[in-house]
Amino acid sequence: MTDLPRMACIKKIMQETPSIKTFYLDMQMNAKPGQFAMAWLPGIDEKPFTLTAVGKEIAITVQEKGKFTKALFALHEGNSIGIRGPYGNGFDYKGVKKACIVAGGCGAAPVLLLAQELKKKKIKLKIILGARTGKECLFKKQLAKTGDLYITTDDGSEGEKGFTTTALENFLQKEKFDCVFACGPEQMLSKVFALCEKFKVECQLNLERFMKCSFGICGQCAINGFLVCKDGPVFSGEQLRKMPEFGNFARLKSTKKVSLQEYAQWRQ
Amino acid sequence: MTDLPRMACIKKIMQETPSIKTFYLDMQMNAKPGQFAMAWLPGIDEKPFTLTAVGKEIAITVQEKGKFTKALFALHEGNSIGIRGPYGNGFDYKGVKKACIVAGGCGAAPVLLLAQELKKKKIKLKIILGARTGKECLFKKQLAKTGDLYITTDDGSEGEKGFTTTALENFLQKEKFDCVFACGPEQMLSKVFALCEKFKVECQLNLERFMKCSFGICGQCAINGFLVCKDGPVFSGEQLRKMPEFGNFARLKSTKKVSLQEYAQWRQ
Amino acid sequence: MLSTNFAGIELKNPTVLASGILGANAELLIRIANAGAGAVTMKSIGPSERNGHNNPTVIAWEHGLLNAVGLPSAGCKKMEEEWKLLEKSPVSIIASIYGANVPEFEEVARAVAEKKPAMIEANISCPNSEKHGQLFGTSAEASAEVISAVKKEIGKIPLIAKLTPQALNIGEIAKACEEAGADAICAINTVQGMLINIEAHKPILHFKKGGISGSAIKPVAVKCIWDIYEAVKIPILGMGGVSSGRDAIELMQAGATAIGIGSGVYYHGPKVFKKVCNEIREWMQKNNYKNVKELVGIAHD
Amino acid sequence: MLSTNFAGIELKNPTVLASGILGANAELLIRIANAGAGAVTMKSIGPSERNGHNNPTVIAWEHGLLNAVGLPSAGCKKMEEEWKLLEKSPVSIIASIYGANVPEFEEVARAVAEKKPAMIEANISCPNSEKHGQLFGTSAEASAEVISAVKKEIGKIPLIAKLTPQALNIGEIAKACEEAGADAICAINTVQGMLINIEAHKPILHFKKGGISGSAIKPVAVKCIWDIYEAVKIPILGMGGVSSGRDAIELMQAGATAIGIGSGVYYHGPKVFKKVCNEIREWMQKNNYKNVKELVGIAHD
Ligand SMILES: Cc1cc2nc3c(=O)[nH]c(=O)nc-3n(C[C@H](O)[C@H](O)[C@H](O)COP(=O)(O)OP(=O)(O)OC[C@H]3O[C@@H](n4cnc5c(N)ncnc54)[C@H](O)[C@@H]3O)c2cc1C
Ligand SMILES: Cc1cc2nc3c(=O)[nH]c(=O)nc-3n(C[C@H](O)[C@H](O)[C@H](O)COP(=O)(O)OP(=O)(O)OC[C@H]3O[C@@H](n4cnc5c(N)ncnc54)[C@H](O)[C@@H]3O)c2cc1C
Ligand SMILES: Cc1cc2nc3c(=O)[nH]c(=O)nc-3n(C[C@H](O)[C@H](O)[C@H](O)COP(=O)(O)O)c2cc1C
Ligand SMILES: Cc1cc2nc3c(=O)[nH]c(=O)nc-3n(C[C@H](O)[C@H](O)[C@H](O)COP(=O)(O)O)c2cc1C
Ligand code: FES
Ligand code: FES
């Protein structure tokens, strides 16, 4: 049992949207949709990223945000980064016959493999993909192949103008899903959860917290008594009900518990 | 890969001769004839002993000599001792159809299992068992069941008066053996080797040296470039020819190389 | 059979969650308590908010863990909510504290003592920050100075001095802590080490050096506990590489009254506490021991 | 590709048999040389005959070895035969020496220097005897005193100071040795530890405490070599837990020019030297290194 980064060569870099790139890495890894890996830039930092391709080679899909992702974006094909994983539980779609996926922004990354897997299993799938603007709609083409794709944008430049959650509410009023899978900003997820509770639909939400060990030792990623790295990142409605911090609080690197707003600010 | 003593309960103690006891121990171990174990008396010392029974339980057969064996002789059924092993190479009887075993004194211990194994494989066997006196003939009954047993004693109180090597020479003059297996005092072994060389017979001799690690790390048990604990304790004629120290020199606990006489004296 | 008393605190079993493992959050501490630990130790608390180091901060290699988390802390005054939740803990809480100097230790001790944890552990042995801890734990005088200062602040709350195996003579340090007023000794903190990723040709931990824990350091722990047991009369909270009942018994025979488990959580999850307790119980039954206290120090003649 | 130069001595490859492994006997040293070691170190030689400890002296646990052989030695004047045989060694001989005080070190150094080994290693770091070694290796002044005294006795023969990881600041000790005239540093000797057999409730080693070697201590070795590399200019013979090419490369990247292998012989037999060399070569080919010297210290920025 070891958890050490191994260096993987960047084989290909795909510009997905103006702010998002996919890095294809020369490393073999089997993982379930929703599992993640830790990506290490020696001398800089190490951060968690969902796997957007698994098997003979893997990929991570990254939005440029802070110091780490800027450094990652500066790399070229042929450069190497450290990878350890896979970590986390991944999505559970056992028994699901009809599903709805809600993805906000970079949240399309964790659900890509899920959607592809559900398609393979011939599970009926509705996908709501949201972004600030049309150009930032991640994995539009890939997701369209896996089910009915509905796009919402904040500025209305593509699909419907508005939020993913408005679309979800509409669907839930008309249709019955075995499960709603969602990933995106926590405010959005919080709303998704409320809707699922209201309509009594099962849900599985992919959460994010600042991580250190990623294997359940340091406690950094805690949401109440749950560990996002080990018990999650995907949580069921039953678990979310026991998580008053969900949608409200998160822990800074110091382990200090703060409001989600303060948490987001800290990361800026 | 670990080499740690495990405590084994003494199930039965058999008085084999006035000076020799067999200790049956509650421990499972598979080993080849000629392999040995390290027996530990906490707070006292740890010494190598040939295994005289293997399988569901094991046994060691011990002659009372110095500090360690005295302490061992003071133990009772129900007491425990530490055991690690098996160690060493053991005898190799592949292809052997007719064999001669020569055992001097406590040297009957390492050959007991060998004789029993050869008997099982229906290999023709002549055994020469030597001792100071009749009462000290070890494993007489057991060995008699495995082949033709000839006994020699220094005082003539049983079998023929004289040395095992005189008997061996007589046999070698008359018969052809595929291999001579021998264990006993090194002076005796030295003579056995000379006879085998003279008569051009293969031999396998079970040697002894003071040991520490017993797994080929400390170098204490060296005879020239060979390690008794790892390359031996059983050596072939081919190896013995490259061992000028055999029959002549041994190393004290300090690693100092001395004559066999001085070595024996040191152990007194 | 497993219940014991550690420096005046009753424990239903001798296993204790080590400091720094899941312990920054009250609910996780309670989760571990419910998983079977006899007591739980909070992640070390400092005087003010501190981020610790960048990642990688914890890695697992072939024979243990290596970490340089770097003493992150919300700071001793920003933990109201945790303290409130901890009131519901089914087992005793040990609060671990650190500081860069004696006044800082005093400040934290004062703030923490107000919250009335069952015990306070002074971490004078953390190897993962330039300024904190290890300085104290390798000098008998410095250790004694911290311990007596903290003791004054915390009154009747039992004080544990957590020592580093890097000390040249850990027995001497323990003795100095005992004389300075420590009610118990905790040993050991991690052993200094480093691992390099040879393809990256860089130390893997961002802080480069870190502390080794887990199975690799068990013999170091046994040796340190042995030395401390020979040097002091106060009880020892032994830790380092425990993930089985046999490991725990080994540390107890060397002299530990209670047994900390940290890295064991990596290997077996929170159920490691139940596992270790069950294994201790089975071994005791087989070897005719009635009470876990009988095991303490019996490897000494 | 693998040939290198260590403190003026040419080595066909950087692997070196560590002291105390099979090294009391010239023929075994030559056997290891023929098995592929770039140089071989003799078992540490003392001033007079010494038995060392009772058994058990060496045991293998899950993550390494633990030994307290106790510096047995025939004594520096009783080794004529070994020296004569060693003249036929196909590789350089490093003679390791120890003493209980400076005059003893001088006496042994003088006797050994007469035999003209390629290098002399002063073992100021053995943890397994009450009087020998460790005392020196944990104090910069004491270390310097031994090293300068030995250096005076051995003239042009390169002198290696073998250090203990128990030192509070191994970089400082290395610096003191360099200033006192050491031509190289060897690190690390074993880490103090103990293991108890819980059924016997007794320490397993007869001497109770011993030195941990093998995989368990590799991160300690990497860290110490790192610190020494930052502190001195003289080359480092790195050792501690090497049994693969990757291990060796890790120690080299931390700063070691040559690599000692001890416990690795337990895990793989004498063929460990060829194995490690082959693995280093393959890794270098894959990663485009031409000469093993390029690897030394590259993990430092
Ligand atoms: C399990 C898991 C999976 C992840 N998968 C991906 C992935 O597939 N793709 C991806 O791009 N990122 C993913 N992340 C987030 C990623 O780990 C980094 O946090 C992110 O890339 C920002 O890194 P940074 O250091 O560049 O920016 P930072 O310096 O950390 O942050 C800069 C900016 O990012 C915003 N921000 C970043 N993350 C969050 C967040 N969690 N909550 C609120 N605001 C945030 C901040 O508000 C700020 O605008 C994942 C996180 C987790 C825990
Ligand atoms: C591989 C191996 C297998 C062994 N198997 C057995 C065995 O099955 N049964 C057994 O009784 N012993 C066996 N021995 C010998 C045993 O390990 C001890 O050396 C012996 O029991 C003496 O132990 P002691 O400490 O009691 O006596 P010590 O204090 O070591 O010696 C006291 C007396 O023993 C004599 N002596 C003991 N061993 C030797 C020797 N090797 N060479 C010369 N003189 C010696 C001394 O001259 C002296 O009279 C074996 C040794 C080896 C290396
Ligand atoms: C990730 C991690 C973080 C730690 N943080 C602390 C800490 O904050 N305070 C402390 O006193 N010890 C800390 N330690 C040390 C442990 O409490 C314990 O002393 C050490 O890990 C040995 O026990 P183990 O082998 O069971 O892990 C930490 C250990 C680990 C692995
Ligand atoms: C059985 C044994 C005996 C040793 N004897 C000595 C010795 O006599 N002198 C010495 O300097 N080091 C001695 N050492 C330490 C080794 O030379 C080496 O420094 C240590 O084992 C770390 O390397 P490794 O992990 O490759 O074994 C001994 C080690 C072992 C395992
Ligand atoms: S990141 Fe360490 S427990 Fe989750
Ligand atoms: S006894 Fe140690 S090498 Fe044979």
Structure description:
The complex is a heterotetramer, with two copies of chain A (about 270 residues) and two copies of chain C (about 300 residues). Chain A contains seven helices and 17 strands. Chain A is of the alpha/beta class and about 270 residues long. Chain A has two domains: about 1-85, Beta Barrel (Elongation Factor Tu (Ef-tu), domain 3); about 100-205, Nucleotide-binding domain of ferredoxin-NADP reductase (FNR) module (Rossmann fold). In chain A, the strands form four sheets. In chain A, strands 10-9-8-7-11-12-15 form a seven-stranded mixed sheet, sandwiched between helices. A six-stranded antiparallel barrel of chain A has the order 1-2-5-4-3-6. In chain A, a hairpin with a 2-residue loop joins β1 and β2. In chain A, α4 packs parallel to α5. The longest helix of chain A has 13 residues, at about 110-120. Chain A is globular, with a radius of gyration of 18 Å. Chain A starts with 5 loop residues before the first strand and ends with a helix. In chain C, strands 3-4-7-8-9-10-15-16 form an eight-stranded parallel β-barrel, surrounded by seven helices. In chain C, strands 5-6-14-11 form a four-stranded antiparallel sheet, with no helix packed on it. Chain C has helices spanning about 25-35, 80-85, 100-115, 135, 140-155, 170-180, 220-230, 245-255, 265-270, 270-285; strands at about 5, 10, 15, 40, 60, 65, 90-95, 120-125, 160, 185, 190-195, 195, 200-205, 210-215, 235-240, 260. Chain C contains ten helices and 16 strands. The longest helix of chain C has 15 residues, at about 140-155. The mean pLDDT of chain C is about 95. In chain C, α1 (about 25-35) runs parallel beside α2 and α5 (about 140-155) runs parallel beside α6. Chain C is α/β, with parallel strands linked by helices and about 300 residues long. Chain C is globular. Chain C has one domain: TIM Barrel, CATH 3.20.20.70. Classes of the chains: A alpha/beta (about 270), C alpha/beta (about 300). The interface of A and C includes residues 42 and 82 of A. Bound molecules: flavin-adenine dinucleotide (FAD) (2 copies), flavin mononucleotide (2 copies) and FE2/S2 (inorganic) cluster (FES) (2 copies). One flavin mononucleotide binds near residues 18 and 44 of chain C. One flavin mononucleotide binds next to β6 and β16 of chain C.
